[in-house]
Structure formats: C-alpha cells, structure tokens
Amino acid sequence: PPPPHGALAAPRRRPATAPPPPAPRPGVVENMSWFAPPDQPEKRYVLFGEGGGAQLAAEAGVPLLAQLPLQLPPEEDRPLVLSQPDSPAGVALKGLAQQLRKRLATPR
C-alpha cells in the first residue's frame, strides 16, 4: 500500500516554504521503511506504506539514498553500526554512509 498522505506532507512542505539550505541536498533517506523481527531477519514487514521515499526523491530530482528499517536499539551504549553491524539497520546505515560519501565527493 502507498504511504499515508500525511507521511509525505512535512517533507514536501519544507522545500516549498523554507529558503534553500546552504548545504547540498544529496538525496532522500526513508526512515522506518520496514521492520524485520530479530528472530527472523529475512522477513520484512512494511508498517507505514511503501514508495514514499522514492516518490519524494523523484519529485525533488534527487536519488533515494537508503531505506532504513525500524529496529530496536542495542542494549549496550554503542552505535548500532558497531554493536550490530550485520543487522538490517546496521547494513542499511553502512550503505547510506557509502552513498553519502560518493554523492558529497562528486563535484556538481
């Protein structure tokens, strides 16, 4: 199913009402795209609809850089990418970092 209408209202409103940000907009990151149970990481459950990040990226003329899954925080006081690097969110965050590094290193 598509995302709820209100889920895309705030990201759309920001570019239309605010002055352009001083930093480049390298792309869109879709947060809470899906959920994978810790005991079944191969399963994906879409909780808030699909396609909103891609739709927003297309409207803004920028790429969809990542779809970050909803994941419980680690119990230890360390960043998720260090404490659970192979978890769905850890893998997605590392992929996002690689995409940002590529996009920001490329002159426009």
Short synopsis of the structure:
With 108 residues, the chain is mainly alpha-helical. Helices cover 41% and strands 6% of the residues.
Describe the structure.
This protein is mainly alpha-helical. The chain has helices at 5-17, 52-60, 80-83, 88-105, and strands spanning 28-30, 64-67. The chain has a two-stranded parallel sheet. Strand 1, helix 2 and strand 2 form a beta-alpha-beta unit. The termini are far apart. The mean pLDDT is 84.
Structural class: mainly alpha
- How many strands, which pairing sense, and closed or not: the largest β-sheet? 2 strands, parallel
Report the average pLDDT across residues.
84
> How many β-strands, per DSSP?
2
Distance between termini? 35 Å
* Silhouette: globular
Summary keywords:
108 residues, mainly alpha, 2 strands, 41% helix, 6% strand, globular
What are the SSEs and their pairings?
Elements: H1 5-17, E1 28-30, H2 52-60, E2 64-67, H3 80-83, H4 88-105
Parallel strand pairs: 1-2
